[in-house]
Amino acid sequence: MHSRILIIAGMHRSGTSLITHWLHRCGLQVGETLVEASNANKEGHFEDREFLKLHEEILLNNGFDNSGLIYEKPLAISEYELEKLKAIIRIKEGRYDQWAWKEPRTCLFLNTYRELLPHAKYLVIVRDYLAVVNSLLKRGWEEIDKKFDHRSLFNRLRWKLLRRGRHKKRYYKNNAEHFIKVWIDYNLRILSALDRLSPEDYLVVNYSLLQMGDKPVYTFLHDNWGFNLHYCPFNAIYKQNLISRQADLSDFIEDETLITRAREIENQFQKYMMPD
Predict the structure, then answer these.
(1) In the predicted model, is pLDDT for residue 243 greater than 60?
(2) Which segments of 211-255 does DSSP mark as H helices, in order?
(3) Which of 42, 56, 116, 217 has the fewest C-beta atoms lying within 10 Å of its C-beta?
């Protein structure tokens, strides 16, 4: 008999860390070794290192950045990498009667996982493109800004007073459209995967709605899919102060067709979405 497996899928910065944290608190095994907290995710990423490292390896071997922030790129998985993936799954299935993982790059390999794990269930987390792009820009800019923390006092002051604002505007201008394209690509991959799955095998949730009511999701996982969980309120781990404020991106996006396409994709998700 197969173990119960939950694949938690969603674009980077879509709230998958927070939701995986919640399910971990509810008693779900989400990985033996998890990626530790960072400035980007102060409460923890809750990413299974085994899947993360293998996904990064595949991306690098295809000549892409291991962040996975790519779009419209074909990804080839070698026989060696496929066997490593099968080994990870085999060990987990032998060790746990129920388990899950979250790692945003999973969205790039959904077709592979559907073939390897035909009995898996999918919890898909959807977050609007503006919130995701804002979060990606904020994270990227903070990494650049932080590099000046250890410079001399003179260089820190020059950066803060003379150069910082100009460089931030340039960074947003250079990356906003790229991140929308990544959001579009990831979510098109998710929609394509949903079309190939039975409706009984997936649950699509709007990230913003969980803070208003977690019981429908918990009940679905527990009653419909049979995951052995103990209830922990989502609001016990949700912290509003860690949610970044959104900036106006209108000055940084020249290609309006990207916005139109992103909104179309958001509308496409409605037919799969768990009712409010």
Answers:
(1) no
(2) 215-219
(3) 42
